[in-house]
Design a protein that fits this description.
This protein has 441 residues and is of the alpha/beta class. The protein contains 12 helices and 19 strands. 31% of the residues lie in helices and 22% in strands. Helix 4 packs parallel to helix 5. A hairpin with a 2-residue loop joins strand 14 and strand 15. The chain has 2 domains: 131 residues, Rossmann fold; 224 residues, Dihydrodipicolinate Reductase, domain 2 (2-Layer Sandwich), CATH 3.30.360.
Length: 441
């Protein structure tokens, strides 16, 4: 039997909804002629085209050129953005143009470093899709080039610009859930397309695809349409589920908590279902230790029998905070004011003796205010887009030359932490990382 420590008090239970504000629907401020930004897309696959479609809705931004290794995507770029859009297989032709201010890089991971460095050295600002790196050596080279050229380099983990994640950061800093001790996050998929089985067009061949250019630093093999269009399934070009999805979860965790990265990582998983020739797992779980005093647990499952989705749960000493879709909820559970007693198995005399001593140490206090136990839920507008905000923030930095919300150092720490999972999985061992120096242990 546990003896309660305070007098009974009224408790407020329920869910209180709060609307998060966004300026996306507000009237756009006219952009001066000299503030217009002309951009190019390098890598016009699904994500590259999505980023560009979003980018050109930001006031004062115009697409003028596209580079891709598949002729069909170059033709479709003209269908999307006009016949006057310059297209090429060789992105260096884009970088030679003086009328381009910035580029969006949506290439496979193994091209991120070289395309970004080439662009910055050509005087272009860069929005590079996540993960920033394919190899650990990519990170320092990209950071050093950004610093040397004084170009803007933003990495494309759009949650960092989300008003939902900004609210979560504010709530955590305010002590809404007390001391943080555990973060759990997941990103599950239950579809073929979600597992990267992207459509290979019937005209895919060495005639329509620049296979040698696509391969770049990857091993030289004969043309393979699946490798070209479903590149995430192979380590030679992509970074597996860790680079595709864990990196989003690390970016969110680091942004909300202010942490720079974990110090230890261990991962497990396997190729459970999509045994189609890919050489990366479709199920991956990771555990990470943070010097700030919390642990991070991550999961990606491409064989999930339930609904597809992503989410976070931050567990603190006085409640939990959950991010689901475009909302963040706080469930406050205030800690007890006294330790309580477990004395029911003792004699009546002993129970009285212990209770008397306990009440001397913890006198009954009448509560003056009702305890708030329940949910505070903050919801973004129905049509809110963090991708729009992330690109808007990038272009604001291009104009102002002020720091971006997700620079190369932040991007390297997020992707470097994510790729620890691949190392641990491949080595079947715990791996260590120095988040301050950004080096493997």
């Amino acid at each position: 039997m546990k003896v309660a420590g305070t007098a009974t008090a009224e408790t407020l239970i329920g869910t209180k909804l709060h609307a998060l504000e966004t300026a996306q629907a507000e009237q756009a401020v006219p952009v001066a002629a000299n503030d217009h930004i002309q951009i190019a897309l390098i890598g016009a696959g699904g994500q590259g085209q999505y980023d560009t479609k979003t980018a050109v809705t930001v006031p004062g931004v115009k697409l003028v050129a596209v580079a891709d290794c598949y002729d069909g995507r170059l033709e479709h770029s003209k269908e999307l953005w006009g016949a006057d859009v310059f297209t090429t297989r060789d992105y260096r032709e884009i970088l030679d143009r003086k009328d381009i201010d910035a580029v969006i890089i949506g290439t496979p991971d193994h091209w991120h470093k070289q395309a970004s460095i080439d662009a910055m050295k050509a005087g272009k600002d860069v929005y590079c899709e996540k993960p920033m790196i394919h190899l650990y050596s990519d990170g320092p080279a990209m950071i050093e080039t950004a610093q040397a050229t004084k170009r803007i380099l933003q990495i494309g983990s759009q949650r960092v610009s989300s008003i939902v994640y900004a609210k979560a950061k504010e709530l955590l800093a305010s002590g809404a859930i007390g001391q943080l001790n555990m973060v759990s996050a997941f990103w599950d998929r239950n579809s073929s397309i979600g597992a990267w089985n992207y459509t290979v067009p019937p005209d895919a061949s060495t005639e329509t695809c620049d296979w040698p250019r696509f391969l770049g630093t990857a091993p030289k093999i004969p043309f393979n349409g699946e490798h070209f269009f479903q590149w995430r399934k192979w380590k030679a070009y992509g970074s597996g589920v860790a680079g595709d999805l864990f990196v989003h979860l690390f970016s969110g965790t680091h942004f909300i908590t202010g942490a720079k990265g974990p110090t230890r990582a261990m991962a497990t998983g396997g190729l459970r279902f999509w045994k189609d020739g890919r050489d990366v797992p479709d199920v991956l779980l990771g555990l990470f230790d943070y010097p700030e005093g919390f642990n991070l647990s991550l999961r990606v499952n491409f064989v999930d029998g339930g609904a597809e989705g992503e989410g976070f749960l931050f567990a603190g000493s006085e409640g939990t905070m959950e991010i689901a879709g475009n909302s963040v909820s706080v469930n406050r559970v205030p800690r007890e004011k006294e330790p309580g007693l477990m004395i029911g198995s003792f004699t009546d005399a002993m129970q009285k003796q212990i209770t008397a001593a306990y009440r001397q140490k913890y006198p009954l206090v009448e509560a003056t205010e009702p305890t708030r136990v329940g949910l505070d839920k903050y919801v973004a507008p129905r049509d809110y887009s963090d991708s729009y905000d992330h690109l808007k923030n990038f272009f604001a930095s291009v104009r102002s030359r002020q720091p971006v919300v997700e620079d190369a150092v932040f991007g390297y720490r997020a992707s470097g932490a994510a790729l620890l999972s691949n190392l641990s999985y491949e080595r079947d061992a715990i791996v260590k990382w120095d988040p301050e120096a950004m080096k493997l242990g």
